[in-house]
Each structure stands twice: as C-alpha cells, then as structure tokens.
Amino acid sequence: MSLPATYLKMFSTVTEGGELRMEMVEKEMPTPKPNQVIVRVEAAPINPSDLGVMFGWSNMAAATSSGEGAGTVLTAPVPPQGMRVMKARIGQALPVGNEGAGTVVAAGDDTYAQSLMGKVVATLGGNMYGQYVCVDAMSCLPLLPGCTARDGASSFVNPLTALSMLETMRLEGHTALVHTAAASNLGQMLNRICQADGVELVNIVRKEEQEKILRDMGAKYVVNSSSDSFMPDLIDAIHATGATLAFDATGGGDLASNILTAMEGAAARTPGAYSIYGSIKHKQVYLYGGLDVSPTVLTRGYGMAWGVGGWLLPNFLARVGDEVAGRLRTRVAKELKTTFASHYTDEISLSDALKADVVARYNAKTTGEKFLMCPQLEV
Questions:
Q1: pLDDT score of 23 more than 80
Q2: Are 62 and 140 in contact (CB under 8 A)?
Q3: Could you tell me the pTM of the whole model?
Q4: Which backbone phi and psi does 258 adopt, to 5 degrees?
Q5: Which of these, 27, 11, 13, lies nearest to 58 by C-alpha position?
C-alpha cells in the first residue's frame, strides 16, 4: 500500500514561560532502515506511566483546550516547583505513548523486518500516540491469528509488569505477594496469573465495589484500606499467605509502612525466640507507581529486616536479560485473550485526547476505567 507523505504525532512541551503545551504535529513519513518497520498505529492505551510524560508537574486542574481537529491544543500552567523539577525538559517537544499495536505497512530490507509485513504487531516505542510509528523490528511482538490491534494494545506494560512481579518474588526468595490498587487492569491481570501459577496474593483496595470485582473473579484475600478493620484484616491475610513481598502502586502516604507493620505482626504470631530487632525474615515493599504524590511516610516498628525501594519494569528486564524477557513475551502472546486481556471503558481519537474535559477523566486514574487511544479515528 502507498503511504501518505505526512502523518500526525502528539507531542508534549514545557515552555520557558511556565506552560505545558500538548498538540499534534505534522511529520514527514520516514523511510525505514534495514532493521526497522513502520506500523500504522491502531490502538494505544493510556497508562499511568504515560501521564507523567504527558503532563509532568503541571496544574492539570487548570488545563484548557483550544482549536479543533488536528489543530486542537491543550495547555496547562506549571507552578514554580514543577518548573524546577522539569528543568531538563524545558523547550523540548517530547513524543508520548509507551506502547500500542497496529499493522506493519512498510519494512526495511532485513529478513526479519520483511517477515512482519502486513502483520498485526504490538510494540514499545515511547512515541505511540501518532498515526504511524517507525520502530526496530525486534521490538515488535507479532500477534497470533485472530488477535486484533485492540487485543494487543496493552501487551507490554501491564502484562510484563505483572509477570515480572512474580519473577522478582522467585528471584528474591519470597513465596507470596501483596499488591495495592489491586482492582486495576494490572491488578486483575496479576490475580489471573497468581491463580494459574498457584501463588498466594493479598489484594489491597479502597472501595467495596473494588472488593466485589476481585472476589467475583476468584480472589481469596481482599482487604479494604478504608475499613475500620483494615490492619487486623491485613495481618490475618499476610499470616495466612506468608507474604513478605509487596508492590505498591500508590507510592505516597503510609500504606507501605502499614504493609511492613502487618508483615511484622503476622511474623510475631509464629512462635520463636524474642528479639529486640524483630523477625529475621526480610520484608520488602517496592514502590512502582505514584498514584499518591504525597511524601512516603515510614513509621518504623517492624524490626530491622526490611526494605523499601523503587521498582521499574525496564530496569528489571535489563537485569534479568533477553532470555527471561523473551520467555515472558511469549507467554503474553499465547494468553493475550485470556490471562492478559485488557478491558477499555473509552476509545478516543488523538484530538479527543487533547480536550480538557476528556483529559480530566483519564487523568483521574479511576480504578476500573481505562482509555484506549485510536489514532486512525478521524481527528
């Protein structure tokens, strides 16, 4: 098929004047290098990790949009603190969109690149919010027959994150997990994986309707952080599972500290010699998200065998190497419509994604809501 001479791609810029500006820019269609392919992007999810690049530390409560169609522009003020944090990106037009899927419409001369012609693939690019993207052929995951771009749009971030949590658990000698914001798309995926793999999982949610979502899909341990009995319930669940590793999507507040306290409380139920240094089993909480942007508060009362640290999927995959990453990607492709199925509440165009009222909805990061960008929809 003949390709258009130009296409639209979304960019985010922080200006010297203290303003965030997001817009679509017309770009020339590239010529793929031998090892590259051009993908017509048909579906790309909006993940929390995308929002950090899109909006950064701007005041999105004051965001406004102007123009229409391809000329739609979103702007938002950036407070002084935000300008200091984002100093390194001032003046740079950053492409956005971590992952997505679509059809390969052009390829370089490399044998593998040519083998992808006409196939529906999922890929990571960091610039997926556009009508087309040129990527390394080796970054593409060919979808199995019968799978659409919509099926494969979220093939990397959530599936590989959930699988890598279990890989981390095994590598570090733990046997069960605790997960927060557990009714999210990722959380539901993690439940399906743990049920399939026989791993005990403690789910932390904050609403009764979220409890119901997880219990209806077979989750055994679900605790509500808004309940008056949260801490006793959490200690009971951790004692029953033996979980000593947690992944916290909230990041801020005292939730990580409460989890460590509950782990120590569960350990104290097992008879053993008393020690002023607490239990000897290492307790670990990894912060992998920032749903709560307040400071992380640790109230130490859980002995000395504990740790809190950051966890990022690309860093983990780089550490374990290509063999492990390839094994995980193969599992995702095989179970794309079952274990790793994602559900979307809204499908929007590139111009829709720049309208202030739509932005307010997907930037709220509401559990149970997930937006899918469809760049081929009319702008």
A1: yes
A2: no
A3: 0.86
A4: -65, -35
A5: 13
